[in-house]
Amino acid sequence: MIKVIASDMDGTLLANDGKIKEKTLTSMYKAMKAGIRFILVTGRGPNGVAQALNYEEFQCDRVLWGGAAVSNFNNEIILQKVLSFDICQKVFEILRQYPVCVRFSSYPQDYFVGDEEEIQNGLIEHTRLFFVKESKERIRNTEVYKTLTNQTERLDDIRELKKKEVPIYKILVNSNQKEVLDKVERTLTEEIDRIYISSSFSDNLEITAYNARKGPVLLEYIESLGYKKEEVLVFGDSRNDFSMLSMDFGATVAMGNAEPEIKKISKYVTKTNEECGVAYVIEKIIKRKDSII
User: Fold this and answer.
1) How far, in Å, CA of 42 to CA of 142, rounded?
2) Are 122 and 101 in contact (CB under 8 A)?
3) pTM value surpassing 0.85
């Protein structure tokens, strides 16, 4: 019997415009009303989650930054697996050799290292990840860009990050050149141990501590709450969902829009995010059908 639903956000709960459809949100409420615990498992931090879901309207557990932290119903971080400053510095020294944008994710602020022009370009490129495909001039006038700007602090030197004494949950790297990202990933994998590299989109890489992966962290958390892994249903669509969809949870469901390798390792495939594939499965569960699909 399914007692926990754990779902990715981008490409899964959220439609292609980065927003949640009313049908999907309604199904989430139905699941919780039926006694099922709902957990968001996302590459986003709290600020990114808030852009899509209102905390006051929908409160639930969250596995954040791709597994680097867990927060409870009260938005308190109760578990974290952070990157050391030494690793952040090593990664940054490698990344500065490539034409990529680099963002250090913390909370409540994120950090960019560089001059004002570099930071503005980085914010523009990062805004594009949130489904804002506009010109630079128009992006600067969007609410997403303004929000990201307010949540970001510029540093002149990477060593300033150490002085901040803040936890770094993830290093976000983005570029519209896939060959550059491929080379960056190969180099980082060869030169730095104990990091985990994944992605939520085709134009980004997400670097976390090696033990900060969605699947193992989700399992650790649900077991701490007294649940068994066979009581958990997980949804996902992209590479950073591999670690949980490849685990032997009760039901692993890939979205219809998921990457081929994600569909291959999942037990089931549902409709696409645009077709409210999460809602489709939840309705089946609530009606107690023999098959969830």
Assistant:
1) 23
2) yes
3) yes
